[in-house]
Sequence to fold (241 residues):
Amino acid sequence: MYEKLKGIVLNTIRYSDKHNIVHVYTDGRGLMSFAVPQGKTHAARMRNALLMPLSLIEMEAAVRPGRDLAMMRELRRSYALATIYSDPVKNAIALFISELLTHVIQEPEGNDALFRYIEQSVQLLEQMPGQVANFHICFLYHLGAHLGIQPNVESYRQGYWFDMTDGVFVPSTMQGHQHLPPQEAQVIHLLSRMTFANMGVFRFSREERNRMLDLIINYYRLHNAAIGTLRSPDILKQLFV
Fold:
């Protein structure tokens, strides 16, 4: 039985000499894995172009209980991406986002709010003419709200530490918890004011932005043991001045 779904492509891995496995986050079924034939035909090349990381697609999926791999047909774009794949900066951001999402999204059920957040973020990245240096920082911070790990900014007071373990601002450190000192805790509070609309007014040096990226990834790791070594952040760190 086939079901119409919208999806966001996370990654593609080689499965055998004849098939790849494509991981897709879908609107109605959450994370799904599809067996996709390999090939060098024109049809295969067209299909591969539709299944690049963060591609926004529509399809009909064969959902069979008890099977790990699904099949797809009637594959098409739901939103055309051009600059994300032609602009090396946007492409590096897209590869980072897709790699991170591959680690943090494991749910085999739909989450409409999370799907719409990712979908709209990809569309915004495609549309932005410039000033995207803070995009991945903004995306990560607000993604936390959909994963249930966004910091509690209401607990912030000047001079407080940020308790990475509990996600709250505290007046003093607690044994067994990871903390950020007040100067860096203030930056976490500052990020809560950043949106995709105003992120261009936030000015950071390369060192500051890279430090924030490391801190946020470390925070994600504390709250999600599935996040292992990520390769794409090293590329991002070389891009922005």
